[in-house]
Amino acid sequence: MSARSTPIRTAVVGAGGIAQGQHLPALRGLGDRVSIDAVVDMDGGRAMEVAAEWGAPRSFTAVADMLAEVQPDLVVVCTPPGSHTDAVIRSLDAGASVWCEKPPTLSLAEYDSILEHEGAAGPYASYVFQHRFGSAARTLRAQIAAGDLGAPLVGICHTLWYRDTAYYDVAWRGKWETEGGGPAMGHGIHQMDLLLSLLGDWTEISATMATLGREVETEDVSFAHVTFENGAIVSVVNSVLSPRETSYLRFDFADATVEVEHLYGYDNSHWRWTPAPHVGPDVVGAWAPTQNLASSHAVQLEELVSSLERGERPAASGHDGRRVLELVAGLYQSAFTGRRVQRSELHRDNPFYWSMNGSGQGSREPIKETADA
Predict the structure, then answer these.
(1) What is the layout of strands, in order, in the sheet containing 152-162?
(2) Distances (CA, A) of 332 to 114, 165, 227, 346
């Protein structure tokens, strides 16, 4: 039951494709639990047009102006990665919680700087990692926690996507300074977050990467071997060079194999539970999810809003939102240095804490643009 008697006042920052295709429809789908009060975009004409389309009474070209005049409860950040940190911190300082598109920030240092602007009882910053919220993932997470499938042993986490050369004509893509990395940072991060939400924290990573087919500063493919605290070993591959695109995760437990193969979203039909030979059919029948809830921005937003209504920290925030960024930083450090990297190494004295390519130490000035994602 919600403790609120009024809708959560919401502002959307960045009026591009992801906002119009995912975030605004998800907000509209919550009915009178939220109100869409403002749209912000550097392109004032587009901000005004999108605001009118979605019934928002105000439009702005600057986040600071919107925060001062609208005083929203929730800010949805849909801008390119380089501008996330500034928009999130401004919003938190104004008393608004935030839901920000992936990747959360360009570095662990920026992520931790955001944490310093949260309050013990809010506002909170959380991030878009929608794949962990589908009913099949929720079911598997509960089964792992209960030990129903036996110990986790072996895993696969492969994001094999295709992005042509025209995709990188957008100025901020493919650059360390503005995107933070290649497919490990901007594409596979969804599957890797799902992996981590299921198996927990990792301890060690060994990785390699290359730039094979695109004219970019970053990698366009990476391979990694990851060891988890629970002893499981997982293969992680991220690519934007794969014509037959797929997102594939597999988990081998002592008593079962669980797989999901999809592209940009799944429902129960994309998942399969396969029992080990010693497991009886009566047990297998109890493993299936009891509802069919697809992974989506809408399902994560509903949980986020429910958390805010209860005055609780939402999922995919704090440490729960940070762990995938930590894995990406470890992947890049291992690939650049040619050695295994321990999770415990990723502290403030490590150059890869400050930037994903290890290019320097010390805080960087965040990009303050709020351009379209």
Answers:
(1) 271-275, 256-262, 241-253, 152-162, 233-239, 221-228, 202-210, 341-342
(2) 22, 23, 16, 11
Contact 209, 227 (CB under 8 A): no
- Taking a C-beta distance cutoff of 8 angstroms, is the pair 170, 212 a contact? no
Q: Could you tell me which residues are beta bridge partners of residue 58?
A: 38
Distances, alpha carbon 212 to alpha carbons 33, 182, 215, 219, 221, in Å: 48, 12, 9, 8, 8
Q: How far apart are CA 153 and CA 139, in angstroms?
A: 19
Q: Report yes or no: 331 and 222 within 8 Å, Cβ to Cβ.
A: yes
**pLDDT tier at 361, thresholds 50, 70, 90:** low
Residue 131, helix vs strand vs coil: helix
pLDDT digits (tens, 9 = 90+) for 17-47: 999 999 999 999 999 999 999 999 999 999 9
User: Does residue 355 contact residue 239 with C-beta atoms inside 8 Å?
Assistant: no
Closest C-alpha among 236, 218, 219 to residue 227 = 236
**Whole-Å CA distances, 275 to 252, 253, 287, 297:** 10, 9, 10, 31
Position 135 scores a pLDDT of: 98
Residues β-bridged to residue 17: none
- C-beta of residue 357 within 8 angstroms of C-beta of residue 336: yes
The tally of CA atoms less than 13 A away on the side-chain side of residue 3 is: 6
> Do residues 150 and 143 make contact, with C-beta atoms less than 8 angstroms apart?
no
- Which two three-digit tokens encode residue 56? 């928002």
What average pLDDT score do residues 202-228 get? 98
